[in-house]
Amino acid sequence: MTNPMTFRHPGFKFLLTLALSLPLLVQAAEPLPSWNDGPSKKQIIEFVQTVTDQNSKDFVKPEDRIAVFDNDGTLWSEQPMYFELLFALEEVKRTAPQHPEWKTTQPFQAVLENDHKALAATGMEGLLKIFGATHTGMTTEAFDDYAKTWLSQARHPKTGKPYTEMIFQPMLEMLDYLRGKDFKTYIVSGGDTGFMRAFAEKVYGVPPEQVIGTTFVTSFEYKDGKASILRTPKLAHNDDGPGKPESIDAVIGRRPILAFGNSDGDLQMLQWTADGPGKRFMGLVHHTDAKREWAYDRQSQIGRLDKALDEANKRGWTVVDMASEWRRIYPFDAATSEQVQ
Amino acid sequence: MTNPMTFRHPGFKFLLTLALSLPLLVQAAEPLPSWNDGPSKKQIIEFVQTVTDQNSKDFVKPEDRIAVFDNDGTLWSEQPMYFELLFALEEVKRTAPQHPEWKTTQPFQAVLENDHKALAATGMEGLLKIFGATHTGMTTEAFDDYAKTWLSQARHPKTGKPYTEMIFQPMLEMLDYLRGKDFKTYIVSGGDTGFMRAFAEKVYGVPPEQVIGTTFVTSFEYKDGKASILRTPKLAHNDDGPGKPESIDAVIGRRPILAFGNSDGDLQMLQWTADGPGKRFMGLVHHTDAKREWAYDRQSQIGRLDKALDEANKRGWTVVDMASEWRRIYPFDAATSEQVQ
Question: How close A75 gets to chain B, by Cα (Å)?
Fold first, then answer.
């Protein structure tokens, strides 16, 4: 029965191919490797398996698999303050030589003198002036250049890493896992759309048309046969709180079946997602890891998580305990051992 | 040599399969069947072949193959007036019993009395009141229902056909052809985004997230655990003229490589597309067929084509002569014989 020719038989080649592809199959069967086997990982996988199972009553067609993610504090860190705000403050300093009047004008004087108290005293009005001065008055292409240049050069004050490396490895894996199951992954964030587009495709694999954020009114300009789009200081849409479901409806026109945030600014997006028909997934990243990242929630000025945490607990939404559920925070971290509580 | 067994040989089966699939192959090799072999068809195919040819210096990666199409007059007809305006006028009549004051208030009185002269006299202000009364003050889901109900019942005054059948067969074929070549096809139109989304996916194969239009400010509402999004009468974005490249940049964040319109309201979208690097395609539908559709351009109140026609001629953009280049206008039409001029 044993014939050496068997080893040249096409069947052998098939077996060999199968054996060689086994490690890949194993990897495909084990998504979210940076998540400990805690409740959140289980809930994510159960949800995805259910809505992609054609035999489930909760099956969702691929085109309706819309997943929305906040950015600051959900896909990357946001301490000691929003990274885009750090960009704005540094842009004020970089461009100050062209604005000698800033030396004696608030809020710019406070920025130039690193006077955090005076800066805080200028409040939201001051902040809008800083964003106006650094985010507008230029073409969309020029702004993209400024943002990309800063992101390539700037380093985080605590980790010394580029900001685009302070992204959450577990969330990258979740984005990949969802896309592998035909979900369309969107960012819906209070950050400026143009600022996020400067890195979202490269860093998260989210293309520009799936980045939704705060926008300024733009103005199409056509001079000497050259077309450009100018960013003006007038706010068009504040993509925070209720602004999130509003922009989701305006831009996507479908209700998401999965939403992930980390702060009260994400509450309305989660409510909008939760109130659709069929099975839904609502998740919150809870920053509980003072050692590897930061620990903050109800009292934080940045990324306050208070009302949304109450509602999540009340309604049984997924709350990710970063300290116990994430084996690794950043891609550059070594993975910790399993430590499910 | 001739062995009757040959006909049972697997090779024969292969030849048979090949023979049976030949008509399909011919069809695949012959895109745009409702276009005569005129200059426009040639320019479209040459453009698509060039930008999808990996050996061409003008090769464009699939993710950058963004194509934008105006809707009214480009993908469907727009005479005797924009179909959405006909919807608005009929909605005024339908809902009039709930608004007894309209009997004596302009512009509503003019609509109810079919007094076109008095209606025209109320101008843009009147028009905005009509759109406010029929397009806002309801949730986005309720508006979607109204639009779908109207579209399923209303008939065009001249053809007696549903409006959603008065779509241009040659343009449907072009959308399909582009998508088959990994283009992402968007609608960018002065029409209300919600109104177009009510039929764009079913009729054009364009999903809601690829429909960009005029928008009203919306308001997220959360009452008794129910989330909804209310359309308010405040205009958020007028997606006409310069508003088109502005919304393309805001929503898509990439510059299209192909743009198609039919009126001066599309000029800035065409300019924005034209001024990008590499090979570009700019097209205009020229309504020259008074017999099968309508003939109008420089003098028309609806869909005026004047400045854009001059610029197209000057810069060598594609101008489709509907009468001579389209073998068939609507899907329900019989195809005419070849009649290239």
Answer: 21
